Amino acid sequence: MTKYQKIANIDYKKELESAAKSMILVHEPDILIKMVLRRIVQKVQVNHATILLQHRDKDAYLIRVSHKHPGVKMFTGFARIDKDNPLIRFFTQHQDKQIFDDGALVYEELKKTLEKNIKPELKQLIAQVIEQMEVLEAIVCIPSYFRADLLGMLLLGKKNNGKKFNKQELNFFLALSSEVAMAMRNAQLFKALELELDKEHRLFMNTTIALAAAIEAKDRYTHGHTARVTDLSLEIAKKLIKKRYKALGPKFLQDLHIASLLHDIGKIGIPENILNKEGPLDDKEKKRMEEHPLVGVNILQFINELADCLAGVKYHHERYDGNGYPEGLKGDQIPLIAAIIAVADTFDAMTTERPYRRVLNKDDAVQEIMSLSGKQFDPQVTAVFFQLYQEGRI
Amino acid sequence: MTKYQKIANIDYKKELESAAKSMILVHEPDILIKMVLRRIVQKVQVNHATILLQHRDKDAYLIRVSHKHPGVKMFTGFARIDKDNPLIRFFTQHQDKQIFDDGALVYEELKKTLEKNIKPELKQLIAQVIEQMEVLEAIVCIPSYFRADLLGMLLLGKKNNGKKFNKQELNFFLALSSEVAMAMRNAQLFKALELELDKEHRLFMNTTIALAAAIEAKDRYTHGHTARVTDLSLEIAKKLIKKRYKALGPKFLQDLHIASLLHDIGKIGIPENILNKEGPLDDKEKKRMEEHPLVGVNILQFINELADCLAGVKYHHERYDGNGYPEGLKGDQIPLIAAIIAVADTFDAMTTERPYRRVLNKDDAVQEIMSLSGKQFDPQVTAVFFQLYQEGRI
Question: Is the CATH code 3.30.450.40 the one for domain B3-188?
Fold first, then answer.
């Protein structure tokens, strides 16, 4: 064993291990493929490296080309070739040991096979493959399979030093190509799952928004109320988190978002004649009206995933001084999620035309909210609310 | 290079490649780890192989032990060791080249270091590590890192032939351990994403069910109506798919599920006095009532993800003979999703007490539905409906 061989051996192993390491946890197909191509071109000093990757629908292969040296004319970015392309057909239909033994297809070797005594159809296919390799300026094609499935292919241009690829290099590429295709498939699956999750989340949020808006539409005085309360609640919460509740993360914001969308859901059961009454409510009507937080909880209580939102629905009419409903909670007993909605809800009611209550302009409404700080509202919430006002964000 | 070395070399590469290949696309952590452990014990003939894998919260490592030979006393299944365990601390705090050069920790070598002149704290830690290895019956520990993060560790028992592990074997395990930890992390991330998707889907379905039920609760005659219509619609659809619409897959069922939950959502805007009127509706009231499919569409129309459900909401009061509303569609013009809901909806209305309509028993209601086949209802839907009845599933 010469010293050169030994070093080459170690490089090969290290390269493969390090490539695999960096690939598996990259779940962005585009970044992954760029990374791999850059690595190949840098380490092996080839003119270009191109990856063909099976499309999810399996009807085509996507082409991705490395940054290549000036003077080489090749398409960049993603393009696609059909699964009927001779190059693909060759690897899916003719895994013929006669033609290429270890799986790598070498341009020079392939040309020689045309002289051999092989079946005419195969000869024709090989001629087409050679043509494709010329179009793609590929000296070597290395397929990678998962079981019988052709996941992808690595195509390499000339070596910069003009030499042929040796056996060891071909073996390395064979192993690498296989890893790349698997990592790419993995990344694609990951990406698909993430997109599905996004879609499902949008579906949930949008449906909840639509239904909340529909329920609210019954009450002709509150058009747009839910959306405005939700926006303001989230503004307050973001500032609170920044200022003093760093531990409250995205989960709190998500819960608050849902809770403020659904805070008045319990009004669904209140007859229109109470909701829209053009005069003060009598005791019975008032009692009915004040049931809406608990009716809301009744509607949502069996949805486990909403457990942390319920406090916002249930307690958004509690008062800091203990004079609210439904339980008369006081001060810190009132969950923060509800204390935030309470401020946003009241501010929006004050600035919207309602029966038997004059509409306040923004400045007056803020002043009234602040005068109720420590009485009706949690002072730490009103403090943040006032800052937002001063910053012109309310 | 002797022949033996060459063969061993090829085995090593092939093993690693084949291990990597089978690992990346296995996204079930439990299956993955079993697979790897079985492979190690079979190929390398060791007494046992144990994997420590960093927990998602990074505060502990989970222990997974291979099927071991009888006589070895070890805990099986998942157990956990704290991140303060000396074994973990050694690899996270002392990546000391003096102690182990290539990353593998060999029990015999480690014992020798205790004789060396090293810092007392390190000596104490090494003594604790040795103790841990004895508890775990480990001859070798092989850590695997992602950047500076200790993802996991491979622990191997004695070789069955009693020999020491050679350098080449240690190198193989080092590479393998790294691959295993990455694949496991990948699988864990995948699993976490799948669980999140499940959760988000449950959240959407349950919230939609709760809100639909709440909207329906306004109409005291229809308690449970939505749930029953949804169940029956799905039963009919599954049978239809089995019989003649094999192309309609899970997507159709999912759309139908949502559409039947929301089919009466437009009733949200109809005043209670019309919904609950104890006599026949006058023309104006009837007109108002018949607007509910279009009101439903108005509520949901901007939710892109629900686009394929809308036809069910919009057309569930169309009739096969063209005398329905809102558009008077006829026969095959009526989307299948709506034709299914129409049958389920009417059947449930017939068998439930309503003002000014006698309640029918199940047999009479089925008979009436069948007598309206081809007039009010799509014959292919009623045919399946009747089969379900005959099978006792209605």
Answer: yes
Question: Smallest Cα–Cα separation from A104: which of A20, A36, A17, A177?
Answer: A177
Q: For domain A3-189, is the CATH number 3.30.450.40?
A: yes
Chain B residue numbers with beta carbons less than 8 Å from the beta carbon of A198 are none
A147 burial level (CB within 10 Å; 0-12, 13-18, 19+): exposed
Question: A196-390, superfamily in CATH?
Answer: Hypothetical protein af1432 (1.10.3210.10)
Distance from CA of B46 to the nearest CA of A (A): 24
- Name the packing angle between helices B167-217 and B250-262 (round to 10°): 30
Domain spans of chain A? 3-189, 196-390
What would the pLDDT profile of A356-376 be if each residue is shown by its tens digit? 678 899 999 999 999 999 999
Hey, what CATH topology would domain B199-390 get?
Answer: Hypothetical protein af1432 (1.10.3210)
Across the A:B interface, residue pairs with CB atoms under 8 Å apart total: 151
Instruction: List chain B residues with CB under 8 Å of A288.
Output: none
Q: Where does residue A366 fall: left (phi above 0), alpha (psi -120 to 50 degrees), or beta otherwise? A: alpha
Is B21 close to A178, i.e. CB distance below 8 A?
Answer: yes
Residue A66 near residue A48 (C-beta atoms within 8 A):
yes
> pLDDT per residue over B132-165, tens digit each?
999 888 999 988 877 678 888 889 998 888 888 8
Torsion angle, CA of A167/A169/A174/A179, rounded to 10 degrees? 160
Per-residue pLDDT tens for B318-354?
999 999 999 999 999 999 999 999 999 999 999 987 7
Query: pTM for the whole thing?
Result: 0.76
Residue among A18, A153, A182 at smallest CA distance from B20: A182
Q: What residues of A are in contact with residue B102 (Cβ under 8 Å)? A: none
User: Which of B167, B193, B203 is the best substitution to test chain A (most A C-beta atoms within 10 A)?
Assistant: B203
Cβ within 8 Å, pair B203-A24: no
Q: Cβ B203–A17 below 8 Å, yes or no?
A: no
Flag if A214 and B269 touch (Cβ within 8 Å).
Answer: yes
**What are the DSSP calls for B283-330, one per residue?**
HHHHHHHHTHHHHHHHHHTT-GGGGGGHHHHHSTT--TTS--SSS---
- ipTM metric: 0.75
Whether B204 and A204 lie within 8 Å, measured CB to CB: yes
